[in-house]
Specification:
CATH class: Mainly Beta
Strand content: 25-35%
Oligomer: single chain
CATH superfamily: Jelly Rolls
Largest sheet: 6 strands, antiparallel
Distance between the termini: 53 Å
Structural class: alpha+beta
Helix content: 10-25%
CATH topology: Jelly Rolls
Number of domains: 1
Bound molecules: 1-hydroxynaphthalene-2-carboxylic acid
Strand order of the largest sheet: 1-19-16-21-14-13
């Protein structure tokens, strides 16, 4: 072994490595350890953004940017500090595969229609009265609703209501960027006009419970929005039974015409951690972005405790040990998005239970979140 290391440090090898570099060639004998890890080495850091910070920055952005003036959405994205190596905006990536943002729209504003190859989804964190117009259908949004806009569909937003609205956007931007599949197109007019009745898909699909008899062929987004009262009813039904040891009570949003994830490349879940619930730790190759919809608690990620409360966002990178705890006072509800469908399609999804200490990690540190 010593001999081998000595050989790779020798002048003749060093000279040769340098010589081929001029021709844009690389020495595999040096690169193998960096390329081939025994197991995933996440580039994304475990991280948490406090709602106070996000809210304050959106309020400052409100004074500076208007979609009508700049022609763009008033969205601020969550840049993972571990993924900043493409300056100045990094990879616009919250995890290695996904992008998340918070977006503010004010009464009277519109965000222009456009379409892109990236898939998008929205989770409504506060307010009501605005709509997304997706593929000609105006979908009105309320707190706790989940909306899906798979790649290729025209979409814009408008706000005829009377209170500010904030939602979470999640897109597969880093994945599509890495794959070289980015296409973007503005709608020929400012915003698409309705071509269907308002909330058409919600009404026709009973929120995803059934499908109309002539809609039997798989469709991209037969149902544009999943309403909060139905999601809550589903969680209440699950809550009559034993919780999952890792996720408490969790449901996944699905496309009612295929039974697959509502967004082809992004899995989205709503999960309830009953007051006082403590999960066991596990890890998996898919990475997750969480939004705290209600309640408070903490998540231990690779031994570091991340305290969270309503409105916060946090990231569990791929292959990171994690376990959740809900505070004793009230049930906690976490909305989350993950790249599980991407990992499954590449046959990369793996999961492991934390093997020691009855499934709990020793807590060695506490994350200090940045406040405004
Ligand atoms: C987009 O279309 C929206 O439709 C939000 O609201 C964020 C980030 C990058 C590219 C497209 C939206 C986006 C986006």
């Amino acid at each position: 072994m010593a001999e081998k290391n000595e050989f790779f440090q020798s002048q003749i090898v060093k000279d040769f490595n340098q010589e081929i570099e001029r021709f844009h060639l690389g020495p595999l004998w040096n690169a193998i350890p960096a390329l081939m890890h025994k197991q995933p080495t996440p580039q994304a850091a475990p991280y948490l953004w406090k709602w106070e910070t996000l809210y304050q920055k959106l309020m400052e952005a409100r004074e500076i940017f208007t979609p009508d003036r700049g022609g763009e959405r008033r969205a601020i994205f969550l840049q993972n500090p571990g993924l900043k190596h493409r300056e100045p905006w990094g990879w616009a990536s919250t995890t290695q595969t996904l992008y998340a943002a918070v977006q503010l729209i004010l009464p009277g504003e519109t965000a222009p229609s456009h379409r892109h190859t990236q898939s998008a989804l929205r989770f409504i964190t506060s307010g009501s009265g605005a709509y997304s117009i997706v593929d000609g259908e105006r979908i009105f949004m309320e707190e706790g609703d989940f909306l899906t806009t798979p790649g290729g569909l025209w979409h814009g937003h408008g706000h005829p209501g009377n209170e500010p609205m904030i939602w979470m956007d999640c897109l597969d931007i880093p994945t599509i960027f890495a794959l070289g599949g980015t296409f973007f197109e503005s709608y020929p007019e400012h915003i698409q006009q309705p071509e269907k009745p308002d909330n058409y898909s919600i009404n026709r699909y009973a929120g995803g419970l059934v499908r109309p008899i002539h809609d039997r062929t798989p469709q991209k987004a037969p149902l544009g929005s999943f309403k909060w009262p139905q999601t809550l009813a589903a969680l209440n039904g699950l809550s009559r039974y034993e919780p999952d040891p890792y996720d408490g009570y969790a449901v996944e949003f699905i496309n009612p015409s295929t039974g697959k994830t509502a967004c082809p490349t992004i899995a989205s879940w709503m999960q309830k951690l009953p007051a006082g619930f403590r999960s066991k730790a596990h890890r998996h190759t898919s990475s997750t972005i969480y939004h705290v919809f209600k309640g408070e608690g903490c998540t231990v990620i690779d031994g570091v405790r991340f305290d969270w409360s309503k409105g916060d966002f946090f990231v569990v990178p791929n292959w990171a040990w994690h376990e959740h705890v809900a505070s004793s006072g009230e049930d906690a509800y976490l909305f989350s998005t993950s790249d599980l469908p991407i990992m499954e399609r590449f046959d990369l999804q793996r999961e492991e239970a934390y093997p020691e200490n009855n499934g709990h990690q020793p807590v060695t540190d506490q994350f200090q979140a940045l406040l405004p």
